[in-house]
Write a structure and sequence with these properties.
heterodimer, A: mainly beta, 6-stranded mixed β-sheet, 5-stranded antiparallel β-sheet, 0% helix, 54% strand, globular, B: mainly beta, 7-stranded mixed β-sheet, 4-stranded antiparallel β-sheet
Chain lengths: 111, 113
C-alpha cells in the first residue's frame, strides 16, 4: 500500500462546476498537508497549506483535512478552463521530513 | 512564500557530456534543498536531499556518482548530471522547505541526444 493514494484521473468537468479532489494516507504522523497545481512542463505551485485537521479557504479554493479518517480534500468552486492542470497532494510529518506526494490528478475544465 | 529560481529551464546535450542545473533560493536561506525527477504524467520522485556545507543524502537507487549535488551556500544548490545518457532525459525540479511549506523551482527539462 502506498503511503499516499490519489486517483490520477483524468477528471473532466464543465466550466463553472465544483471540483472535488481527494487523497488518502496511511501514516498518522503526517501533520503538514499541501496541495500543488502543476501546469504542463512547469514546477508545482503551492495552492493551499494546512496544518493538522481543519478547513482552509482561499478564494475559490477550500482545503479540508480529516486526520481521523486520514483523508484530505481540495474543492474548487466555479471552475475555470485556466484551472486545467495536474493537482498534487503532498504531506509530511514534523521537522524537515521529506514530502510524500500523491500521484497527481489531471483535471480538464472545458468551456 | 519562498521564491525558488531554477536555471536553465531546458537544455539539450549530447550523450556523454555533463550538464549542470542551478537552484537558487532568492528570499530564503535554505540549509536543505531537495532535488526531484519527474517522468511524463507521473508524480515527483525525490532523488536527493542537498545539505549546505556537507554531503547530499541520496534516495535508494539514485547513483550519487551520476547525479552530483553541491550545496555551497545557503542560497544555491547545483545538480550535475554526469556522462549523460538518453535515459537521463527527464524533468528535474528543485525545492526548498520552510518549517511548514515546500516551494518549487520552475523545473529543468533535460533532453540527451
Amino acid at each position: 500500500q502506498k503511503e499516499v493514494e490519489q486517483d490520477p484521473g483524468p477528471l473532466s468537468v464543465p466550466e463553472g462546476a465544483i471540483v472535488s479532489l481527494n487523497c488518502t494516507y496511511s501514516n498518522s504522523a503526517f501533520q503538514y498537508f499541501m496541495w500543488y497545481r502543476q501546469y504542463s512542463r512547469k514546477g508545482p505551485e503551492l495552492l493551499m497549506y494546512t496544518y493538522s485537521s481543519g478547513n482552509k479557504e482561499d478564494g475559490r479554493f477550500t482545503a479540508q483535512v480529516d486526520k481521523s479518517s486520514k483523508y484530505i480534500s481540495l474543492f474548487i468552486r466555479d471552475s475555470q478552463p485556466s484551472d486545467s492542470a495536474t493537482y498534487l497532494c503532498a504531506m509530511r510529518a514534523g521537522g524537515y521530513n521529506k514530502l510524500i506526494f500523491g500521484a497527481g490528478t489531471r483535471l480538464a475544465v472545458h468551456p | 512564500g519562498a521564491v525558488v529560481s531554477q536555471h536553465p529551464s531546458r537544455v539539450i546535450c549530447k550523450s556523454g557530456t555533463s550538464v549542470k542545473i542551478e537552484c537558487r533560493s532568492l528570499d530564503f536561506q535554505a540549509t536543505t534543498m531537495f532535488w526531484y525527477r519527474q517522468f511524463p504524467k507521473k508524480s515527483l520522485m525525490l532523488m536527493a536531499t542537498s545539505n549546505e556545507g556537507s554531503k547530499a543524502t541520496y534516495e535508494q537507487g539514485v547513483e550519487k556518482d551520476k547525479f552530483l549535488i553541491n550545496h555551497a551556500s545557503l542560497t544555491l544548490s547545483t545538480l550535475t548530471v554526469t556522462s549523460a545518457h538518453p535515459e537521463d532525459s527527464s524533468f528535474y525540479i528543485c525545492s526548498v522547505q520552510s518549517d511548514t511549506e515546500a516551494f518549487f523551482g520552475q523545473g529543468t527539462r533535460l533532453t540527451v541526444v
